[in-house]
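Hi Y.,

Following your request, here is the sequence exactly as I used it, all 517 residues.
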Amino acid sequence: MNLKLILGIILIIPISCLANTAQNSLIVLTMPSAMVTDHLYRVSLGSFIWKPQKAISVGATPRSVFVGDVNNDGFNDIVTADFDEDVSILRWNSASENWDASKRYVGDNPHSVFIEDVNNDGENDIISVNYYTNTVSIITWNRRISDWDVSTNRPVGNLPTSLFIGDANNDGQNDIITANNDDDEVSILCWNTDLNDWETQITRSVGDSPYSVFLGDANNDGYMDIITANFLDHNISILYWNATSEDWDTQITRSVGNFPRSVFMGDANNDGLNDIVTANRADNNVSILCWNETIRNWNPQITKPVGNSPYSIFLGDANNDGLNDIVTANIDDDEVSILCWNNKSGDWDTQITKAVGRRPYSVFLGDVNNDGINDIVTANSLSNDVSILFYKKSKNTEERLIFSIIIIVLILIAILGTVVTGIVISKKKVLRRNLRRSGNETSYKHISSSKELEDLRKTEAEVGIEKEKHICVVHRGEIVGAVYICPNCETFYCMKCAITLRERNERCWACNNEIEL
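Below is the corresponding structure, written out as tokens. Let me know if you'd prefer a different format.
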């Protein structure tokens, strides 16, 4: 559950009590509950940290890492593409709260891996792109046996380095896209629902040496487009989907930094629109192309420094504050760089770096240990492992949060006491205000003599009946304007009759209590 929602629920009862009490006492109470909730939310987030890395061994030379529910049990798992072997699968074991390791054979030299429903049957599968065999390997989940089927291969272009699964042709079905480094092309394997299989690959030209491919709504028009990072052209290629021709337009390009190694699409500056980011290996920085809806184009690139030789980039909520951040895997530093979005300044903070394993080739953001909090994972090609940077509370965060809640509750109790104390005073002020509005107190009288008053006096039974009807027990009519209610027996009087009774030293006709005005 969202933390702000939890804090709001914690505060709603005392705040509601205050509001109801204030309404009954004719006092208007304004409580800055949003400010209180935001304060507690900031306190609760203020002491989160990344713990030192946890390393878990995988296969030889992992080039890619992906976090997702690989065995369709509702828990996130970790998969790596091991360039010298196959794919490693770390399945989360909820009983032991640890990972169970296994492997699956795919084609030779897998360079990239993805978890997604590739055959559109509602179950997640494993897909790898294999560098030297020019294929993708597809390991589909078999729900009948609760295990994976033997992998099948499909041909793609030459020396494929990157893979993405998504709805490439905008027909509602997932497809397969690869970046083919040697062909300067992308291969697109569209799913055919009639055949229940993939069609023969379609190829589209992109820039020189595409190392990375991504699928998303690049121009924010509601259709999925294809983007590649072109290593030797120092730019990106964008293949817009054309809904009229039902095909991709010829590529357009945008310049980025030198030797872009990875590309990602998402809301980088948290304005609700998709942007494009690249990791530029030679410049040790990232390029950010923010979408400008006014001009329907990207603003000139922004660059931000990161570590040495960034090889992989990811957009997501790294510090779990509800805002997207930028993370890179820096292969020459054995570190990740984290650029946290600062909502106050409307910019990214200076990078934070965290140590990971040797030669991190790929980075991913996700809830690795299934605790509801995003973590950072890298595939380390030289140490043959994955590094996990868990995002956890520091030791004093819960104490600080509890202390803040106690302070707020004490303030609410103090305000509640003040409101209750003022009930009687506020009612008297209202009665006096009603009297002043009529000019003077004598104008309320409509009983001119003691005889008239005696003639109107009721028996005990009559008083009881009129009390139930909530009408004035003196003149037996509907009460218009101010009302007096006996604090002892709750008998109703119109203000004119109550004042007359008080002036003539009469008491309440129902309980003989003094008329208190």
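The helical segments are 3-24, 33-45, 397-421, 423-437, 450-456, 460-469, 495-503.

Thanks again,
Q.
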